[in-house]
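Thread: "does anyone have the structure for this chain?"

Original post by V.I.:
We have the sequence but no experimental structure in hand. Need at least a predicted one for the grant figures.
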Amino acid sequence: MVEHTRAHPRLKQETPPGRREKLELGSLFIPAKLERRGDRKGAAARLPLFVHFHGGTWLPEVAASRAGDTAVISIQLGAGSSVYAKPFADRKLFERLLAEAESKTGVKFAPTTLTAWSAGCGAVREILKTPENYARVDRVLLIDGLHTGYVNGKPGPQESEIETDNLQIFLQFARDAVAGRKRMIITHSEIFPGTFASTTETSDWLLSQLGLKRRAVVKWGPMGAQQLSEVRQGGFLLVGFAGNSAPDHVDQLHSLSDYLRWFK
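Reply from O.Q.:
Generated one for you, tokens below.
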């Protein structure tokens, strides 16, 4: 679906200066201004890192450069959440990626944030299922991608019954965020795919389990998006945006750098 109700601005593709390293999966980027950071005692540098799934390479690099204080590993594998989930069924893969990045750069990466747009959330789900990974990840950002299936494979006809097994690890992380032990941001649109549960439905389920309610708001969000609702509790933030078209979905990807600033 395409609509022309409002403008959908897009970031211009660019290649920010910095160091790039090819990894077993994806690529590492350290913005130029961070390459020589180290502590005053001459120890190895220690840098924040976010690992982003889905949405190409240049846009996460631009977000890292704009954030000014973080490196990024960008991982682009294709379409569909299973494409992102399958590699991380190897419970050691995430640990290997971080170790490889640290070995190639001599940098200790911490704290660690996982970010994903759309299908990329499948990778975040699998990574968090491993307790060692869960302990290492401080923050999670899910951009219009908290999906699951429908019971019996179809929606409705009115209130739909969704499969919740794939949401349990996100619920666990959300509870830790509400309690202040983690940080979590979830955004969603009003897109209803039809063949699997929408991010609106999964967000509603998550809030019901947390015992939280939305606060209605009407204001402009990043990239000209129209924000309709918000939930804040502890280190947890959920933001709902208007829009049920593909451009509305992509708006949220191009808002990555803005969402990262929300963690500060």
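V.I.: this helps a lot. Residues 38-42 have pLDDT under 50 and may be disordered.
O.Q.: and The chain is about 30% helix and 25% strand.
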